[in-house]
Amino acid sequence: MAERTRLVIAGGTVIDATGERPADVLVGRDGTIAAVGEGLAAGAGGADRILDARGCIVSPGLVDLHVHLRQPGGEQAETVESGSRAAVLGGFCAVVAMPNTNPSIDSAALVREVQELGRASLCQVEVAGAITVDRAGERLAPMAEMAALGVRLFTDDGAGVQDTAVMRRALEYASDLGVRLAQHCEVDSLAAGGHMHEGEWSSRLGIPGIPAEAEEIMVMRDVALSRLTGAPVHFQHLSTAGSVAIVEAARRSGLAVTAEVAPHHFTLTDESCASYDSRFKVNPPLRPADDVAAVRTALARGSLDAIATDHAPHTADAKDRAFEEAPPGMLGLETALALALTELDLAPAEVLALLSWQPARIAGIDGAHGGPVAAGRPANLCVFDPSAIWTPDDSGGASRSRNTPYVGRRLRGRVRHTLVAGEALVVDGEAQR
Ligand code: DOR
């Protein structure tokens, strides 16, 4: 850790779950917020440094429930370090790392290894453990051992748990342990061989498709399993109108289901695949405009809990293959906030609910993240200019990979400063280490 200074974030508008007010934020050397109020910068209260926040929103740091940091085994595409740098540049102070690494994170030893890498990185890295051994869907992984190390979210992400009885047992087990299961909803037998959404565009392009039902049938099944077991279920990267409707109905009936959507599912359609550019290949696939509209409407209605990036770096070698040969996935950490601010008809506070305090609760880290910007709280903070216009280039930002589909797209809203535990790790849009 660099030596901490006492600093004031001056001249911004604070927005958190309690509301909105103009205020300076004084951050102490102990990494917590020392004071919040107007005029703190004037005398600077003994502060060593002033971070300019004029024209900016000062909010609790963002929390991403879904990132692929590729360690162990995929270091050419990303490391915990490079991914965490992309995270703080995108305003994220905490991320949940998916276990579809090589080997999979399905044991206490692997959890420890990634936690260790996380401690040396720029943001808080929460490790998601696999539900089943090697994510193979057959035998339950030692969830209790992983939970004892602080793992709060389990998923076989990259694949759904296909066997209904295995999923039921996993939910019962999770309930006893007080942890949450997250599901990548995809019925393999329906999705097998598909590379994009099955519909008009897949027919036109001659690319085998994945029907919406491959996702929706598993969402339906897991809603039923949540009812059967009483255990909460978190649905990852929902992408279809049908999935959203099922989740909304489940919530109305009082079930403890939560759901996230990824920025690409409210900003891009399957028509993008007409370029045969593998940067538009992702799983679940990009869907038609009606599905995109349904996801946006659900976000506006408040019936989804979180925007999660599904940041999925892949090397240029892998992505340069033909569409059907290339792996699915796209970068997300550095563009998520701007895409939400630009594309959704939501107030900044509503966007922040989806990117900060609601996901913090789902991850079980709301003690340190997503809470009110108030004295005594850990200084995990995001300062962004909601009206700054910028355009992503093809460098991939801080990621080791470059597979972003948003090159050249005009975005509004840019991170200016990010503080993690009081340390200014991004200042004026530049990473400080
Ligand atoms: O597009 C995707 N990429 N979807 C997944 O489920 C996995 C992810 C990855 O690991 O690349």
Widest beta sheet: strand line-up:
3-2-7-18-19-20-21
Share of residues in helices: 25-40%
Main sheet characteristics: 7 strands, mixed
Oligomer: single chain
Number of helices: 14
Segments where pLDDT lies below 50 for 5+ residues? none
Radius of gyration: 21 Å
Bound molecules: (4S)-2,6-dioxohexahydropyrimidine-4-carboxylic acid
Architecture overview:
This protein has 433 residues and is α/β, with parallel strands linked by helices. It has helices spanning 40-43, 80-89, 108-119, 143-148, 164-177, 188-191, 200-205, 212-229, 241-252, 264-267, 289-301, 316-319, 336-343, 348-363, and strands at 7-10, 13-16, 19-22, 24-27, 33-37, 49-52, 57-60, 62-67, 92-97, 124-127, 153-154, 180-183, 196-197, 209-210, 233-235, 257-261, 306-307, 381-390, 411-420, 423-427, 430-431. It has a seven-stranded mixed beta sheet with strand order 3-2-7-18-19-20-21, with helices on one face. It has a five-stranded parallel beta sheet with strand order 11-12-15-16-17. Strands 5-4-1-6 form a four-stranded mixed beta sheet, with no helix packed on it. Helix 5 (164-177) packs across helix 8 and helix 9 (241-252) runs parallel beside helix 11. The longest helix has 18 residues, at 212-229. The radius of gyration is 21 Å and the shape is globular. The termini are close together. The model has no long low-confidence stretch (mean pLDDT 97). It binds (4S)-2,6-dioxohexahydropyrimidine-4-carboxylic acid. (4S)-2,6-dioxohexahydropyrimidine-4-carboxylic acid binds next to loops.
